[in-house]
């Protein structure tokens, strides 16, 4: 019996499947009275016994012991006639432990090719010919040594490790191409090292590390996607899709999340961690350690018990913010990544960047603004499918299951809040919580929101004081708007035409529309309107802004202090704090009296000296003293520095 199939690392191949079938047929004659037999897979290693169907399943998933050529544990004679081309002699010379890991990764990328039918038989899942050819090519690259007689690297493992180093140390594409050319010349003649970055990326895309390109209208009107994928002009503004010769004006990069969610369950370790929120999380009343402890999570569970009944159902948060990919260069450019964060994992894994799911990379040079929904379209379509469920495999429980996923809220700063929610965070009704009950006051060239005393008890003494804004406060707190109230308001919102074309007339909002600019595309998700908490503000963004404003005011930093001439004039207009009003000066025109909350020069010097000398526990914060310059100024403070300082 030819047993070369044992050394075949491609457990998706027909040769390996046929060999496992021959082994199962052979073993059926040596089962014990209970129908059990030893399992020779790489996990059980003939130390555990299972039913024959489970043994077949293990062999297809974990592989056959490479040195178990003589099946003596299953009733075979000690010296069977095995062909000279046995697994030990026929193993490719470049195959080693790292190649075994790569083969396992390729199987994860390919997905599990077997399903358990009604009779518990394992049936092969037929792949499309093009997809099967792609994985055949990858396994061929895995078996080919980097060069003749190379014992450490195959062509595929070398490329993957090289790309890993590039990403870790942030090499530029040009430096990477130069290295590839040097390596190709240095290695022996006939080596399989790629010469260009394009060849490297093409191979990695076959592994499953690629993304989809979707052309975008020049004015962000639409995506050339689905029914518009073959259009040459924008169906809304009529502008050409291309700059020239099939080169688009903009291109959205879309990273499908379904394959990556499946891969979270393709490893038994991450598959187990994905159940942590249900099976290992410590529940204690009054303690908020994880999103699952919050009311929003619990209400979602009560509304959708079928979804909540399976701990493998994935709950995610959607986060987005703009950044300049050109670092500190003067180029003004804003690119917006959209990242999904799976909350099933424990907190120390949820916030690890390796578990962030980048789904969209929205191109610049300007922020998407009100057209954010245009770019979210591919993701929303995929999330609708994930809500109904897709077939996946759980390596921890060794069973197929229906994988479902949902986005339970968004996380953003205040400007991005407007893009995602559809409620404008500018103007008189800027507060997205108080909505039409926002308490505002017009001051010089600005709008101020100073109705905070309305949240106090009606009998509180501060309500009667006129020292705050020149009048007493008799209003009740703003209303708590229900989902029905918000949906009712959204019904009055007119149809918004996307795009930034200069020829498009700006739609004027009606008074009944309040501050709504659109109905967010997120409401297309079947569960979105029932969520208790749809949008979250990023605390670190707000903390940094508050800290910068406080420090700018205390230290009287020019251009950053909020205690300017207009602020003093506002105090006079409201008739409060007369000691701070601007005073006439014969030379300067006006003089701003010193405020008690502003540091003097000596006090500011003491503050800077303290920051230089402060010592904080290791790991608690960075060295804040480095942010104090020789000229006694604060520079380079990060968000966490502001958090610690406050």
Key terms:
646 residues; alpha+beta; 7-stranded mixed sheet; two-stranded antiparallel ribbon; 21 helices; 19 strands; 33% helix; elongated
How would the blueprint of this fold be written?
Blueprint: H1 14-27, E1 36-38, E2 49-51, H2 52-62, H3 87-90, H4 97-110, E3 114-116, E4 122-124, H5 129-143, H6 155-168, H7 173-186, H8 197-209, E5 212-216, E6 242-244, E7 247-248, E8 250-254, H9 258-264, H10 268-273, H11 276-279, H12 295-303, H13 305-309, E9 314-320, E10 336-342, H14 347-350, E11 357-362, H15 372-388, E12 390-394, E13 399-403, E14 405-412, H16 414-421, E15 441-443, E16 446-448, H17 483-491, E17 535-537, H18 539-554, H19 565-574, E18 583-585, E19 589-591, H20 601-613, H21 639-645
Helix pairs in contact: 1-2, 4-5, 18-21
């Amino acid at each position: 019996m030819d047993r070369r199939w044992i050394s075949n690392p491609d457990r998706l191949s027909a040769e390996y499947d046929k060999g496992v079938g021959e082994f199962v047929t052979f073993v059926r004659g040596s089962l014990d009275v209970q129908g059990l037999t030893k399992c020779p897979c790489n996990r059980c290693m003939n130390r555990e016994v299972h039913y024959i169907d489970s043994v077949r399943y293990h062999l297809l998933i974990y592989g056959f012991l490479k040195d178990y050529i003589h099946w003596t544990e299953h009733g075979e004679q000690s010296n069977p006639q095995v062909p000279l081309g046995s697994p030990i002699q026929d193993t490719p010379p470049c195959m080693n432990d790292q190649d075994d890991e790569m083969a396992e990764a390729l199987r994860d990328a390919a997905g599990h090719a077997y399903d358990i039918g009604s009779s518990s038989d394992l049936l092969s899942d037929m792949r499309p010919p093009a997809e099967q050819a792609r994985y055949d090519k990858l396994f061929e690259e895995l078996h080919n040594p980097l060069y003749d007689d190379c014992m450490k690297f195959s062509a595929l493992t070398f490329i993957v490790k090289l790309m890993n180093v590039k990403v870790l140390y942030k090499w530029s594409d040009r430096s990477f191409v130069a290295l590839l050319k040097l390596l190709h010349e240095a290695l022996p003649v006939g080596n399989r090292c790629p010469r260009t970055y394009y060849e490297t990326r093409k191979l990695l895309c076959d592994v499953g590390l690629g993304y989809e390109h979707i052309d975008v209208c020049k004015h962000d009107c639409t995506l050339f996607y689905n029914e518009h994928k073959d259009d040459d002009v924008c169906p809304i503004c009529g502008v050409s899709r291309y700059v020239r010769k099939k080169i688009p004006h903009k291109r959205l990069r879309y990273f499908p999340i379904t394959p990556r969610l499946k891969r979270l369950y393709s490893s038994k370790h991450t598959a187990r961690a994905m159940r942590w929120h249900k099976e290992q999380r410590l529940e204690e009343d009054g303690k908020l350690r994880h999103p699952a402890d919050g009311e929003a999570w619990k209400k979602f569970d009560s509304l959708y018990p079928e979804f909540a009944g399976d701990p493998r159902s994935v709950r995610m948060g959607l986060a987005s913010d703009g950044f300049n990919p050109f670092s500190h260069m003067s180029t003004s450019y804003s690119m917006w990544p959209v990242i999904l964060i799976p909350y099933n994992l424990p907190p120390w894994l949820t916030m690890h960047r390796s578990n962030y799911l980048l789904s969209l990379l929205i191109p610049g040079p300007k922020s998407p603004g009100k057209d954010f929904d245009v770019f979210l379209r591919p993701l929303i379509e995929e999330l609708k499918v994930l809500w109904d469920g897709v077939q996946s495999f759980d390596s921890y429980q060794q069973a197929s299951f229906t994988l479902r996923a949902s986005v339970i809220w968004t996380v953003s700063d205040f400007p991005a809040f407007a893009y995602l929610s559809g409620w404008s965070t500018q103007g008189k009704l800027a507060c997205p919580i108080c909505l039409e009950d926002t308490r505002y006051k017009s001051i010089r060239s600005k709008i101020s929101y100073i109705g905070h005393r309305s949240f106090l008890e009606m009998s509180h003494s501060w309500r009667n004081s006129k020292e705050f804004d020149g009048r007493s406060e008799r209003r009740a707190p703003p209303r708590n708007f229900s989902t029905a109230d918000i949906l009712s308001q959204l019904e009055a919102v007119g149809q918004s035409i996307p795009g930034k074309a200069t020829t498009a007339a700006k739609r004027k909002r009606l008074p009944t529309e309040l501050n709504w600019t659109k109905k967010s595309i997120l409401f297309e998700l079947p569960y979105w309107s029932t969520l208790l908490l749809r949008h979250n503000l990023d605390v670190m963004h707000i903390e940094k802004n508050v800290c910068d404003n406080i420090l700018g005011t205390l230290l009287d930093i020019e251009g950053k202090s909020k205690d300017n001439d207009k602020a003093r004039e506002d105090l006079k207009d409201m008739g409060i704090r007369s000691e701070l009003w601007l005073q006439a000066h014969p030379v300067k025109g006006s003089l701003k009296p010193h405020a008690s909350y502003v540091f003097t020069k000596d006090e500011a010097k003491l503050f800077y000296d303290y920051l230089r000398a402060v010592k904080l526990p290791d790991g608690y914060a960075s060295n804040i003293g480095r942010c104090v310059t020789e000229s006694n100024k604060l520079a380079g403070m990060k968000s966490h520095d502001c958090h610690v300082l406050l």
